[in-house]
């Protein structure tokens, strides 16, 4: 019996990183999940953009803009991105909008089912862990570009204060301190929150801070929408306190947005850091 020796192709012997994905990208890019074969059309799906959250002794506030994009096109102007997960927690979505909304619905049902079966609600840590498991189940689609990046926040009854959790597409769960933002405008929103956040803020000031951060994100990120006064489309804002979760109605958000926009007419870059509660940006 004879054996024929065949040398490995040069690509296998070239020095490179230990990443198999990097190796495929250089030698067989069509094998990667996010690639499409010749002649295939890329999948176009609407994407949600920016969500912000901040916490305090009162609980937590979460706000999201209303724009969904599809490439450089506005796919929807009034999408809802902030939802009540249960009585004391909220979830905001960024990423592939259709999958994100379905994940929220499944998450809501699972929390309700647990409470009906066990007779008590799941702890806030337990809710955060369950959301991480749901995201991990979406990893296959995330590798194909259909990722979901939620932000979870709520009032922890056991600890008596608000808490915030962020995630990555693999289901990694990270508790955030004080504030956080996700989505395409998150970089700008977090910069605004660093400037304006106050640990001793009341609910009203926390809501105003969230709206200011979204406005700053929209100022620099084309995929994030600012308040649309002509169409009366305003951010969705949720508040979680010891009394439960409440989504502010449209008229209430409008009443908070109007003075914000008026103040920006004299100071387009927004209020000064350390401004007293209820202060003006002038």
UniProtKB/TrEMBL annotation:
InterPro entries: Ntn_hydrolases_N, Proteasome_sua/b, Proteasome_suB-type, PSB_actinobac. PROSITE patterns: PROTEASOME_BETA_2. The keyword Hydrolase applies. One of its GO terms (biological process) is proteasomal protein catabolic process. GO terms for molecular function: threonine-type endopeptidase activity. This is Unannotated protein. It comes from freshwater metagenome. The keyword Aminoacyl-tRNA synthetase does not apply. Keywords: Cytoplasm, Hydrolase, Protease. One of its GO terms (cellular component) is proteasome core complex.
């Amino acid at each position: 019996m004879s054996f024929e020796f065949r040398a490995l192709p040069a690509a296998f012997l070239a020095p490179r990183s230990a990443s198999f994905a990097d190796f495929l990208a250089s030698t067989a890019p069509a094998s990667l999940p996010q690639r499409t074969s010749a002649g295939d059309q890329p999948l176009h799906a609407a994407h949600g953009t920016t969500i912000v959250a901040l916490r305090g002794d009162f609980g937590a506030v979460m706000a999201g803009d209303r724009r969904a994009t599809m490439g450089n096109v506005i796919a929807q102007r009034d999408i809802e991105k902030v939802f009540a997960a249960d009585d004391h927690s909220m979830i905001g979505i960024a990423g592939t909008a259709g999958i994100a909304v379905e994940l929220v619905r499944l998450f809501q049902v699972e929390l309700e089912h647990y409470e009906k079966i066990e007779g008590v609600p799941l702890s806030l840590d337990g809710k955060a862990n369950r959301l991480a498991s749901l995201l991990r189940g979406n990893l296959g689609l995330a590798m194909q570009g259909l990722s979901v990046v939620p932000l979870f926040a709520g009032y922890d009854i056991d600890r008596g204060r608000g808490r915030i959790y962020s995630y990555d597409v693999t289901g990694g769960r990270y508790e955030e301190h004080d504030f956080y933002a996700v989505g395409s405008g998150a970089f700008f929103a977090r910069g605004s929150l660093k400037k304006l956040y106050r640990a001793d803020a009341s609910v009203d000031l926390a809501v105003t801070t969230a709206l200011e951060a979204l406005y700053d994100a929209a100022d620099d990120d084309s995929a994030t929408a600012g308040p649309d006064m002509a169409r009366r489309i305003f951010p969705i804002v949720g508040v979680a306190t010891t009394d439960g979760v409440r989504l502010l109605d449209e008229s209430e958000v409008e009443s908070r947005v109007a003075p914000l926009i008026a103040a920006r007419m004299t100071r387009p870059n927004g209020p000064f850091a350390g401004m007293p509660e209820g202060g003006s940006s002038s």
